Amino acid sequence: xxxxxxxxxxxxxxxxxxxxxxxxxxxxxxxxxxxxxxxxxxxxxxxxxxxxxxxxxxxxxxxxxxxxxxxxxxxxxxxxxxxxxxxxxxxxxxxxxxxxxxxxxxxxxxxxxxxxxxxxxxxxxxxxxxxxxxxxxxxxxxxxxxxxxxxxxxxxxxxxxxxxxxxxxxxxxxxxxxxxxxxxxxxxxxxxxxxxxxxxxxxxxxxxxxxxxxxxxxxxxxxxxxxxxxxxxxxxxxxxxxxxxxxxxxxxxxxxxxxxxxxxxxxxxxxxxxxxxxxxxxxxxxxxxxxxxxxxxxxxxxx
Length: 303
Known about the structure:
paralog of FGE (formylglycine-generating enzyme), 10% strand, 2 domains, alpha+beta, 8 helices, 3-stranded mixed sheet
């Protein structure tokens, strides 16, 4: 097997360890049976590339409870299989955790005219929202298992080296909705998104109402060499009161407007001005086209 073909099976880049956001965990998935893990590890040495890729994908998707089994697993003979197993052990993406957001009457919006979001009260039912944005790996599973569309920036339908834990961008609004249905959740409404991001204060930034140079914004932050945003949770200041992260410094996110149309909320790592990072900024743009700086996170995910 040539190195050029190996990288599609085994991304080799090493990504920085992401800070683990505090969140209310979903029910822990049971650990798979040892025989199941052993069979998947053995398949890393399968004679066909398709079988090896499928085994690696399933190993990466195992719940965290499988870590002890993976730690003691023995790879088949050969460099490729051992390297693939080592990569799986080191870079399995963390599953999103559910952050609970209380319902009730909440104030959203701001008096800052450019936000285009005048202060108003909304009544929300309690909901949960994922603590992290949907990752490249999870979107890849959607592409493989449900025929979803790969972002245009991907090569041969696969994300860049080492991007399992990196938020995915570049999908249309309709594809975001389709993913949410496939993953057992939904896109948050615009009001839910804002309340989850600032806790109903309402504050323009995760840390409070005033801009402070706490975010390592454009021109200050060291981005990945492939042009993608960094891993989820890598900006400590960008943390909402509910424990979720990356509302204004990673990717903008798809939300649903009251009439059911789709819009985009939140700042992103390419934003060139502090005003574009404001959580209360809500230009009522009904858009569906894909942009590389727009991703998604799910609300009320059931699995």
